[in-house]
Design brief:
The structure is a homodimer of 428-residue chains. Chain A is α/β, with parallel strands linked by helices and 428 residues long. Chain A contains 15 helices and twelve strands. In chain A, the strands form three sheets. Chain A has a six-stranded mixed β-sheet, with helices on both faces. The first copy, chain A, has a four-stranded parallel β-sheet with strand order 5-4-3-6, sandwiched between helices. A two-stranded antiparallel sheet of chain A has the order 7-8. In chain A, strand 3, helix 5 and strand 4 (144-149) form a beta-alpha-beta unit.
Chain lengths: 428, 428
Amino acid sequence: MADPSSCPLLTPASVRAAYEKIKPYIHKTPLITSTALDAIASSPDPSVYLSENPPPFHNVPTNGVEQGNDSQGSDDVPKFKLWFKCENFQKIGAFKARGAFHAVTRLIEELGVEEVRRRGVVTHSSGNHAQALSLAAHTFSIPAYIVMPTISTPSKIAGTRLYTNNVIFSGSTSQEREAVVADVIKEKNAILVPPYDHPDIILGQGTAGLEMETQFQEARYGQTGGRVQWKGERKEIGFDAVIAPLGGGGLLGGTATFFSNKYSTLVFGAEPSFQGGDDGRRGLLEGKRIEHVKTLTIADGLRTPVGVTNWSIISDKTKVEGLYAVTEEQIKMALRLVFERMKVVVEPSGCVGLAVVLFNKDFRDMVVRKQKETGKKEWDIGVVFSGGNTTMKALSQLFAEEKKTEAREREQGKIGLDGTRKVEDVAG
Amino acid sequence: MADPSSCPLLTPASVRAAYEKIKPYIHKTPLITSTALDAIASSPDPSVYLSENPPPFHNVPTNGVEQGNDSQGSDDVPKFKLWFKCENFQKIGAFKARGAFHAVTRLIEELGVEEVRRRGVVTHSSGNHAQALSLAAHTFSIPAYIVMPTISTPSKIAGTRLYTNNVIFSGSTSQEREAVVADVIKEKNAILVPPYDHPDIILGQGTAGLEMETQFQEARYGQTGGRVQWKGERKEIGFDAVIAPLGGGGLLGGTATFFSNKYSTLVFGAEPSFQGGDDGRRGLLEGKRIEHVKTLTIADGLRTPVGVTNWSIISDKTKVEGLYAVTEEQIKMALRLVFERMKVVVEPSGCVGLAVVLFNKDFRDMVVRKQKETGKKEWDIGVVFSGGNTTMKALSQLFAEEKKTEAREREQGKIGLDGTRKVEDVAG
C-alpha cells in the first residue's frame, strides 16, 4: 500500500480528488426516497408498522403531493425526510469498491502500473473487501492475492474467484491469516491493501458522502452547491444529518471527512450492540479506542474493531456528532421494512443506520431536542445502505429462526412488546 | 365503469392519451439493467448460477466497458441485453395503479366528479387491484367499496384499509363475492371497476409499455423516437422484444396494444404452468379462450383466466408473438437471481417474464433461430417486473419449504438436474 506519510491529507478536497480518480470505475448509485418510510420514521412508534395489521399513515399522498405530517401530533416525535444512498447497488454489492479502486489507482500513480502489475496486491478478507480488491486489480490487469480462511462460505469464495485465480487459504485465526499474507509479501513482493485502516481507503469510501450530497442538492434544490435563504440567514444547502454504519470505520471515517467543513450537516455512526459490537460507542465512553471485539452479530460486516486512523476521525467531536447502537431485533426490523416497503435488498450490516433512526430512543430524543432548539420541523437525513450481499437462504434462515424463537423469548421477557430484544450490557 | 362502447379504441394513440391523464398520479418507475443478469441470461445454462459455487462470467466488466460475449462460444446460445421495468417500485407496489388511475380519471371525465363522488366505485379483489383502486379513489375523494373474502390475509386487508374505510367482507367463492358486489351496486349505485377486463384498465396498464420504450430509447440512443441506420436499412429505434406476465391479461394486453404498430418489437407473454396456470398458452393451442382455471401457483397474481377483451388482443398474432410457461422452480430461481444479484424484491408473479428468458427452452431456441435469421447478435429485451408485494415471512416460507422438499423430490426424479420441476401436463 502507498506509504501513509505520502498520502493525501484527510480533507474534503482529498475526497473530491479521490472521486475524480475512481469515477470511471464505480457506479453512481441512486439516492432514493420512500414516502412510506418517512411516515414510519416520523411516527411515535415505528415498530407498529411491523405488525400484521399496521395502522394507516397519516400522511397518505394525494394528488401526487404529500400532505404534511402535522396532524400526527406530538412535539416529542422526530420528523424525518429520509434519503437512502444505495451502495447495495454498487459494484460487487457494497461501498467497498470505492476504497479498493482508490487504493489501486493511487498505487499505480505512485509506483507506475508496471511495478504494481509485477508485484500484485494482497489482502486478507473473507468479505466484501476481498471481492472489491480483486475487481479493482482485475480491471488494471494486476494480480490480486486474497487470503481467505478455509472455513469461508463457498459463495464468498466463489464471489472472489470471479475476478482472481489467486485465492489462498489459511487457518481462521488472525495470526494464521497474517502469516500467510506475510509469506505472499515475502515471496511475490506483493503490496498489502488493508480493508479499512488506511488514508487511501478512507478517502475512497468518503466519495459515497460526496456523491450523495450532490444528488441530494440536485433533487431537493435543483442546484449543486450554493446557499439558500433560511430563517433570515444564508445557509449552505445540504443534509441536516447523515448516518452511516461503523465497523472498521472506513465508510464513516471517509464520510465524516467529506462533511467536516459542512457545519450544518451532522454526521452520526451506527453500530450493532450485540456482544459488544458497539466498540466505537463504548470507546468514546471510555475515552480510548477498543482494540479487540468478539461478536457474532448478524451485522457481520461490522464485527471488527475501529481502526487506528479511523478512530482519530471518529473520536473527533467536530467530525462525528455521535455514535448509536441497535439490537439484533432492531436491525432485522429495519431490514424487513426496507424489504417489504421499499422492495430493496440490504444486508443486515447495511441496515443499522436506518435501525438507529427508527428505533434508538436516545437518537430520536436527541433529534427532537435539536429540532426544537433550531425550530426546524423536519430533518433531511442521508442514510447509507452500505451493502446488499446476502442470500435468500441466509435471510430465510434469519427470519425462520426468529419465528421459532420469538414466542419463547417473548414469554421469557427477552423481547419487549415493541419487538426489541433486551441484551445484557456487554460494555467494558 | 365507463361503458366499453364509449371507450377509446385499443390503439397506441389511446395508450398515449391514457398516459397524459395518469402521469401526475403515478411513479415513473426506473428501467434498470444488470451486467450480471445479462451474462447469466446469455450463458448456455443459466441455472448453474444458482449453485453454491457458480462459475465466473466470461464478460466481466473491465475499465467500465463490457467485454463482448463472443468468447462464450456456441451459436446455440441466445444473447440478451435485459432492460427491467420496475413496476415493483410503482405506487402500491404494482402496475395496477396505472389501470386504476386511468379508470377513475375516465369516469370523472364521463360523468363529472360530483356524480362519481356521490356513487363511489366498487370492486372485488383481494390483491393489488383492491389497493390500487382505493388509492386512486382516495386521491379524488371518491368512496371506494372493496369486497374482500373474509379469509384474505390480514396484511392485504390492512393494505387496502390504508386508503378506504369501506372494506366489505364476503364468502370466498366468486358467486358469494359477486352477490355482495351486486348489493353494493344496488344500494349505493356504485360504479364497478373490474380488475383487468375493460378497455380503460387495459389502456392504463399499457402505459408501462409506453414509459419503458421512451426510457429505453433515451438510455440506448440518447433520443426519443426516430430511426437509426441498421444493416443498410432505416429502422425505428426500440426494443427487439418485450415480455410481460399474463394473468387476467390487462398488463400484457395493454403492452401489446402499445407496441402493435412497432413492427420491429416482438411482444411475448409469460405464465406459470403449475396446475394449468398457463391457460393463455393452452387456449392458443386449442384455438379458444379457456374460461376456468384453478391453480395454486406461487405466482398468485396470475391465477385468473384471461379476460374476454384481453383474449381478443392476446390471440392476435400480429400483436402477441407467443406465450411461454415456466415451472414453480423456475419462477423461484428467477426470483432468487433478482434478489441476490440485483438486490431487488420482486413478487413471484413479477418474475415469470425473466424466468421464461432464463429457463424456457422453447423460448431460448426461438430466440437463437430469430437471431440467426436476422443476423442480430443480441436482443434488447424489455422485461416487466410487474409487482413487489410479498413479505419476508412469505418468501422465507417459500424458500424454507424448498430446502425441505428439494432433496426428496430430486431423489424421486420430480426435479431435473437443471432444477426444473417436472409437472404433469394439465392442458385440456
